[in-house]
Please model this.
Amino acid sequence: MEVFPGISMDPEVRFGKPCITGTRIDVATLLGELAAGAAVEEIESEYRLSREQVLTALRYAAHLPPVEN
Model:
């Protein structure tokens, strides 16, 4: 089921984690790569994604409410 434009969740794929629609690549993996300093171009190449797909993961993360400690 699409939960955000370009982001899907399916209990049969990656344990229901939010993933780039049509892939098994979860948003958390992409965000971790970016947080570790990877360039968008590197992620595009490594995961065979478009720039728009990588940016969609960022948009989705920005859309989420903040986590309280």
